[in-house]
Amino acid sequence: MRCDLCTGAYRYKSIDHVYRRNGELVVVEGVPALVCDRCGDTLLSGETTSYIQELLKREAKDAAPLYKFPLDKREDPFIQALLEDDMEDTSRG
Known about the structure:
Elements: E1 10-21, E2 24-36, E3 42-43, H1 46-57, E4 66-68, H2 77-92
Parallel strand pairs: 2-4
Antiparallel strand pairs: 1-2, 2-3
């Protein structure tokens, strides 16, 4: 899949995503995302953002709120479909 911003290619990456909750920064580690290899634009699936919203509703147990995203990229249908499209684009040349 090509980036609409710069025409780079999106690649699967596991990223750390930072959010602000009640004025404090919260880090969610291991978030599955598609990231443009040229400009860094990031796409998250609806399933991923919903899961993160649920995580952020919980009270953090650590001194610094840190969450790990457990979803494997193969379990996210949005990312899987985009990766398959990317493979088809690559095979066409």
